[in-house]
Amino acid sequence: MIGTAGISIADVDPHLLRTFLAVADTGSFSAAAERLRYTQSAVSQQIATLEADLGTSLFTRRPVAPTPAGERLRRHAALILVRLEAARADVARALAPPGRLVIGLTPLSWAAPVATAIATIRAESALLRTHVRVADRDKIVEAVAVGEHDLGLVDGFTAPNDPLRLPEPGAGGPRAVGVAESRAVVAVPRTHPLHGRSRVGLGDLADAYWIDAPEIAPFTRLPVDGLRASLRYDGCDATVLAGLVAAGHGLAVLPEPMVAAHDGLTGVPVDRLVHRVELLSLRADEDGPAARLSALLSAGT
């Protein structure tokens, strides 16, 4: 309980919690209104209602920042909303037709073992309806956490044998299991001065120009500071990113198999860096196609 009004968190309208988090995340009533597509006055009214319900002020106004009570609520609100969405998705799943499998994946997580595993379970069930949805890593983690996706496949670059640093959706969220790992390489055109190098350190490339592809391979997540972007690509098509590198618009760190498959590129291995794919599942012990796919991919590690 927060405050002295006798209202527990369980009694709070989830819509008010979503508005509260939007203000806390953006530090602005107007920015929260834009994110939620509300008017600023509506956001102000909802925060005032929440503060009245809980009997305490949740934000200072100039600047807009959570009060100590607001910080406490912030720690709980995100988890409450995640679990609420998971409950709704679980109920919806019970009402859905049998034989449905929804997989979320990041663009670079798709690889031959994934395609083979999906083909196997589809062959085992002629009635299985499979949906594949592509999104960035944070969205996939959230979608699996709330039950919108049965499974998720996410990727990133890390030190050998280290897990990915994924967002924490809270207790009871999805577990992650590594299912694939390959060498990370700097993708360069075949005419680039780096062509033919046996290895390279990212720190040696601080003066190079990079392509920032936040939906595919954000260079800001690489374990080095000072890299500069010469071009930003906001799409999800990995072949377009490879084409931009081949055309000389900048460098990108990519998994070695992807670079090897592109005629216009060469890959220079990066010191102590690998491309890792992890499988996310919320209920790995359930029967059905999700559990079967999880088992097939985990067995391939």
Polypeptide structure, described:
- It holds the Pfam family HTH_1.
- Belongs to the LysR transcriptional regulatory family.
- The radius of gyration is 23 Å and the shape is globular.
- It has 9 helices and 10 strands.
- It is of the alpha/beta class and 301 residues long.
- Strand 3, helix 5 (112-124) and strand 4 form a beta-alpha-beta unit.
- Helix content is 37%, strand content 24%.
Which characteristics define this entry?
alpha/beta, about 300 residues, D-Maltodextrin-Binding Protein, domain 2, disordered N terminus, 6-stranded mixed beta sheet
Characterize this entry briefly.
By secondary structure, the chain is α/β, with parallel strands linked by helices. It has helices at 14-26, 29-36, 40-54, 68-95, 112-124, 137-145, 238-246, 256-260, 289-299; strands spanning 59-61, 64-66, 100-105, 129-134, 151-158, 175-189, 209-212, 228-232, 252-255, 265-281.
